[in-house]
Amino acid sequence: MPLSWYHSGEPGVSMAQNISHAVMAQRHEPRDSADDFPTPPWATRALLEHVIGKEKVRGLSCLEPACGRGYMSLPLFEYFRQVESSDALPYGFGSVRDFLEYPFAALSHDWVITNPPFRLAEEFVDRALVVARRGVAILARTVFLESVGRYENIFRLRPPSKFAQFTERVAMVKGRVDPKASTATGYAWFVWEKDELAQPSLMWVPPCRRSLERAGDYEIR
Ligand SMILES: C[S@@+](CC[C@H](N)C(=O)[O-])C[C@H]1O[C@@H](n2cnc3c(N)ncnc32)[C@H](O)[C@@H]1O
Predict the structure, then answer these.
(1) Nearest CA owner, ligand 1 atom 26
(2) 14 lies in some domain
(3) What is the pLDDT of residues 47-73, one digit of tens each?
(4) Could you tell me if residue 4 is inside a domain?
(5) Residue 29 counted as domain residue
(6) How far, in Å, is the centroid of ligand 1 from the Cα of 156?
(7) Which residue has its alpha carbon closest to ligand 1 atom 8?
(8) Confidence tier at 162 by pLDDT (50, 70, 90)
(9) For residue 33, what pLDDT band results from cuts at 50, 70 and 90?
(10) DSSP string for residues in the chain
(11) CATH number, domain containing residue 101
């Protein structure tokens, strides 16, 4: 089927549409890009409400090590007792720390939860599994599940305890959150609960965007 390529209007996003109905979108970021695509807050609440369970994190601490402008840290703070936020770049929200270089102590935080730059996601999982006492949750494109390299380096010996595929699209745009944004890219939560590392369980994040959106979620920061 022939493809016609056009730019979506969003920086860093190209779209390919064939002459039937299928639409695909991919983020084409330079290799050294910070991958500054904030997460709409409802997608983080969905993790606690539908994947981990909010009662399981009550009173616990969490590190968001690629916090950007804090669009994930703030909803995390609705559920955790304490949320520490940092990022390699100075967005004016958390401390400025490169997660792959800063000496966070092993087992220093109950949970490590983030949406890392895709090109560093594998390294983030490695490091997060050292820093977290109880669990790690990584929001990534569904295709993070594939590739021989990731199978060998992560999934073969350290499969996630839960793979939770979003049924709704989680649209992310560069440098901001936008309630009207759309995407053809699928996202999932990859969760490693250290007391449940056995057989990975496949689950779906049910439709929940409308019920988990709050006033102020899309304010510019
Ligand atoms: C996809 S954005 C996600 C931001 C935030 N977690 C959210 O969900 O709204 C990825 C973030 O990773 C940060 N980043 C890139 N490389 C990093 C590194 N080595 N250590 C810490 N943060 C990094 C970028 O600056 C950017 O803010």
Answers:
(1) 36
(2) no
(3) 999 999 999 999 999 999 999 999 999
(4) no
(5) no
(6) 26
(7) 39
(8) very high
(9) confident
(10) --EEEEE-SSTTEEEEEESSS-EEEEE---TT-----PPPHHHHHHIIIIII-GGGTTT-EEEETT-TTSTTHHHHHTTSSEEEEEESS--SSSEE--TTTS-PPTT-EEEEEE---GGGHHHHHHHHHHHEEEEEEEEEEGGGG--HHHIIIIITTS--SEEEEESS----BTTB--TT---S--EEEEEEEGGG-SS-EEEEE-S-HHHH--TTTT---
(11) 3.40.50.150
Q: Is the pLDDT of residue 118 over 90?
A: yes
Name the domain count of the chain: 1
The CA 166 to ligand 1 mean position distance, Å, reads: 21
Write the single-letter amino acid at 122: E
Range of the domain at 57: 36-212
Task: Determine whether the shortest distance from the Cβ of 110 to ligand 1 is under 6 A.
Answer: no
Q: Is 180 exposed, middle or buried (0-12, 13-18, 19+ CB in 10 A)?
A: exposed
Output the pLDDT for position 21.
33
Instruction: Answer whether residue 67 is part of any domain.
Output: yes
Exposure b/e, 9-36, CB count within 10 A at least 16 = b: ebebbebeeeeeeeeebebebeeeebbb
